[in-house]
Write a structure and sequence with these properties.
Structural class: alpha+beta
Largest sheet: 4 strands, antiparallel
Strand content: 25-35%
Number of strands: 10
Oligomer: single chain
Order of helices and strands: HHEEEEEEHEEEEHHH
Shape: globular
Helix content: 10-25%
Strand order of the largest sheet: 1-8-3-6
């Protein structure tokens, strides 16, 4: 995963270790989940959501199911043999100041075959305050800083279909602007 964060850092004109440094990935939070969706007549699966972490690596068997929203439409992400899908999460959207967007996705199964998938998610250390990397916020701050553990708790309280980065981390900028915060001049309204 650190090789992916290095490539993402470089894609934004940063040193290759900048994201790992800013998000304290030496002491990162990692979660591995295995899913099994039984063969079913009606559609079953996971509702639309974004992932709370930085990146997710998804491996799925040859049975279709992952759908990604693009321009308001759901697009089937067909499994490619012996490969992983890399899914951008909410913390990448925040740290990149919106240059990378968290992917709104869902899992749907409606067929005769059982679908299995595994996902490995990486996020910052739970005590890390995630905020836009300063070099990416020269034209204004799109998100406020928030401790990763608080972010997770807030996301769990929201409806699963909401883009959590927009709801949680962006919601504070209007409050700061109304209060005349010293940082309000940096906030894009």
């Amino acid at each position: 995963m650190l090789a992916l964060t290095a490539a993402i850092s470089e894609s934004m004109g940063l040193d290759d270790g900048r994201i790992a440094e800013a998000l304290n990935l030496e002491d990162c939070f990692q979660l591995v989940v295995w899913n099994q969706y039984p063969a079913a007549g009606p559609e079953v699966g996971l509702p639309p959501h974004t992932d709370h972490g930085l990146l997710a690596l998804l491996f799925q068997t040859g049975v279709d199911g992952l759908q990604v929203q693009k321009n308001g439409r759901w697009i089937l992400a067909k499994p490619i043999p012996n490969s992983y899908f890399v899914i951008a999460g909410d913390q990448l959207e925040i740290a990149s100041n919106g240059r990378y967007k968290a992917a709104l996705h869902r899992a749907m199964v409606h067929g005769e075959k059982t679908r299995m998938s595994s996902v490995s998610m990486i996020g910052p250390c739970l005590d890390t305050v995630v905020q836009p990397i300063p070099e990416l916020a020269l034209q204004g701050v799109e998100f406020r800083g928030i401790k990763y553990s608080e972010y997770i708790e807030h996301q769990r309280a929201k409806k699963p279909h909401e883009n959590a980065a927009s709801v949680i981390a962006r919601g504070q900028r209007e409050i700061l602007a109304r209060q005349g915060s010293p940082n309000s001049s940096q906030i894009n309204a």
